[in-house]
Amino acid sequence: MINAIASRFRQFIAGKNSSIGRYDPKNKSKRSLALYTCIGLVGGILALLLMASPGVAQKPEPQQSSQLQQPLLVATRVIPPFVLSNKDELSGFSIDLWRSIANKIGVESKFIEYSSVPQLLSAIKERKANLGISAISITAEREQNFDFSLPIFSGGLQIMVRNPESNNGAFPNILQLFFSASLLQVIGVALVLIVVAAHIIWLSERHHKDGMIPKSYFPGIFKACWWAAATLATQADEMPKGVMGRLVGIVWMFIGVLFAAYFTASATTSLTVQQLQGDIRSIDDLPGKVVATTAGSTAATYLREHKISILEVTKIEQAYNALQTKKADAVVFDAPVLLFYAANEGKGKIQIVGSILREESYGIILPNNSPYRKPINQALLSLKENGTYQSLYDKWFDAEKS
Would you say the pTM of this structure is higher than 0.70? Predict the structure, then answer.
């Protein structure tokens, strides 16, 4: 095409230099039109060539770069020690980690606080925020609607209860001891021993002229049972008169001493365990109890799966208050969050019991197909390799672990 235009242009020039082309008025307008047409075609071809060149194809990149430089909206929620708020200044493990990631990928960001997990997830889904970071568990259900970064923390669910030492009075513990299965077993064994010993004494004493037991079975057996019970409790006020009865009495007194020691040791052990641990020690003790946790959390889902009564609150601080005011018997939530509270504000008031109920990993949550997922993962891996991640972990969790 270019060659044809060049040939046409040469013809035009040749015609212009000829005597006919120079002085023929009729061809003047035609030559002007042809000249303008050629110039337009040449300009159009040059424009197309410039647009197709690599240098021009890269011109939109500054636009994209300027878009990437706009501050990212980061959704978060206060959940110590991952996110703390002090006079509108945010800090915590997740906040420090995100600032390191943002610095690594070269973007500016702005935090937006939400009061609950459902609100935070809704903001990400509706793209009111570019991403979210706090203590957000990675679950199969959430993975269907969102993208997650690589895990930023590994934790799990745990149980928190009131410190039994802070309860007023030991009367409830004593009542619980008397109606415990172990005590009922001890009482059952004692009744059997009393009946056996009573019959032996009645048989050995009923024919003795000065015997303490009447000859007839009734009321003799009742008197024998009373003596056996009193002796078992080391409170006997009479002794058998016959030789056989006295031998039985001596043996029975030794049994009574051993029984009293065993009963005392069992009762003391049970009361001590209750004082140290209370009546909730694992997930098996939660049915029939009221357990507080935050609405929409993985802890709430876990408790529903185990058919445990839940008191759902908006913020974890409300769950702590429900436990302290005895509106709830326990709190089930993320282990690092509970441990941080137990080591600080709740020190001496509450305690963590049992092992991890279900292990979980936390991640940075993003909308599906987010362009920021890959650079965030690359930055996160880099921070783990250069030791920055470990430094942040030690800063926020070493004191809690100790």
Answer: no
